[in-house]
Amino acid sequence: MSNTMKAMVYYGANDIRFEERPIPKILQPDDAVIKLTKVTICGTDLGI
């Protein structure tokens, strides 16, 4: 199993990058790691 994951990272307005990042670890009892299988956007999201 890989120790990295693909992630979209927000750096600021008009600056979102697709990167390989370390897989987050659960450190606290109330932490959660969520694996997304599908993600979509609405056409109005493009104007935001």
TrEMBL record:
<keyword id="KW-0862">Zinc</keyword>
<keyword id="KW-0479">Metal-binding</keyword>
<comment type="similarity">
    <text>Belongs to the zinc-containing alcohol dehydrogenase family.</text>
</comment>
<dbReference type="InterPro" id="IPR011032">
    <property type="entry name" value="GroES-like_sf"/>
</dbReference>
<dbReference type="GO" id="GO:0046872">
    <property type="term" value="F:metal ion binding"/>
</dbReference>
<protein>
    <submittedName>
        <fullName>Uncharacterized protein</fullName>
    </submittedName>
</protein>
